[in-house]
Design goal:
The chain contains 2 helices and 4 strands. The chain has 110 residues and is an alpha+beta fold. The relative contact order is 0.17.
């Protein structure tokens, strides 16, 4: 499985990269059909007028490509590790739903 990690307006540190690879490899270890994964991390530099700090400005987006399907999730939080955790949880739910749909629509063998 190929995981592509990109950063927009921030640099990808080895700790962030290791965190992403760990979370996504755990998530897809039971599914061997994953063709590729793409993770995009970005930081929005807008400042909230009231609190004088950026709120929910660390954004994580992920795309998982399966044969015949493409799963997408996006999450934002105050720090990057929380947004990575949120996006991995969203994709985990989508993958379990996808697996259930595959088992329901499997052709019957006679």
């Amino acid at each position: 499985m190929q995981i592509t990690i990109r950063g927009h307006h921030l640099t990808i540190t080895p700790a962030i990269e290791e965190n992403i690879r760990f979370k996504f490899s755990q998530m897809t270890k039971h599914i061997d059909q994953v063709n590729s994964m793409q993770v995009k991390l970005s930081k929005d530099h807008q400042i909230d007028k009231h609190s004088k700090k950026g709120s929910l400005n660390h954004i994580a987006e992920a795309i998982i490509r399966l044969p015949g399907a493409e799963l997408f999730a996006q999450a934002s939080a105050d720090d990057m590790y929380t947004s990575i955790k949120k996006v991995s949880e969203k994709l985990k739910r989508q993958l379990t739903k996808h697996r259930k749909m595959q088992t329901i629509f499997q052709p019957l063998e006679i």
